[in-house]
Amino acid sequence: MVAVNRVYIAQLAGLPVFGPDGEPIGKARDVVISLRIDRQPPRVLGMVVELVTRRRIFVPMLRLTSVEPNAVTLATGSVNLRPFHQRVNEVLVIGEVLDAKIQLEDGSTAVVVDAAMELTRTRDWRMIKVAARQRTGRFGFKGPTQVFRWEDVGGLSVNEIAGQPQGAQQLVAVFEGMRAADVAHALHELPAKRRHEVADALDDERLADVIEELSEEDQKDILSHLDEERAADILEAMNPDDAADLLGELSEGTKDRLLELMEPEESAPVRRLLEYSFDTAGGLMTPEPIILTPDATIAEALARVRNPDLTPALASMVFVCRSPSATPTGRYLGCVHIQRLLREPPSDLVAGVLDTSLVRLPPDASLSDVTRYFATYNLVCAPVTDEAEHLLGAVTVDDVLDHLLPANWRETGLSHA
One Gene Ontology cellular component annotation (predicted)? Predict the structure, then answer.
């Protein structure tokens, strides 16, 4: 038995999907419909489910036994685990229908904010309603939400959906609360037109976080879509090592223009990273680890570690150097592991708990050397210093994994790992 007979699609996004025995399968990401040439309600074909491995598969509606406000349940039997590929005349409701402009019977225009599917007497699901906002004055589509029958609006045929420019406010709202890596995976699955619209709608900081999680080809695709001024702003918002990796894949002319458009203080660390080969410690490192002077207290170190913008790997270690404390720093003195920080009195100085024996990586250390280093010392973060003992940056284990995995690992997920 299906728990409800009518479901609004935007509310499905992110819901957990369970197998027949109650085991978690993944999350609902979208609904696939087959649009008609006329205005009759389209048939709902199935649901796109993202497995725990991040692979997206198609599940026919007949394979769903329950669609509830808080979860989706699959029927017994096998499910095709091949990656989902959108076919001709198939449309993703969340990915392509939300934010579409429609024409109402009175000739006015509205924008779709949600759509509802309903179970018919023949046990088929049909897309029967659209929730939309009409334009109010000069301030865009800010009016109250109204619900219309699918057949009473125009603009939702397959050709109209594919051809019209859309906003992306509703889709961006669906992405709120999702991890940047999950948003990146969702963007990869969207048609290029829709992917560009979402990129235009995301703010710089959010888009920078998402781009860092995209495959190389998707990164270049989005960056080439943006005007150069905004592309430079996005690069400034990215971690310098990720920005350097992306710039390194562009033509020399494009790279130079974007670097010139960046603020000098933002482009300087990126330029330094570009001097190293991408598969060396210098090319892998971030120039912005946690750096303190020796007169800093344990309490100050812990406060820096608590920064939510730091990755767990970067937050695992604090580096202590003579001034200046920006890379390249003054003389490198040693590091303090977070476990040690947690065991010491907050008022003590970091200089008293330094690990001075940990081997440092030179910037020209190869990828294999860096990999062996992490395996030898069981670390997730390591210092990179030059011959004069200046700290240049830190390599984290996630940077190493990015270069050890196959080039298309972000697209294939974890299923072949």
Answer: membrane
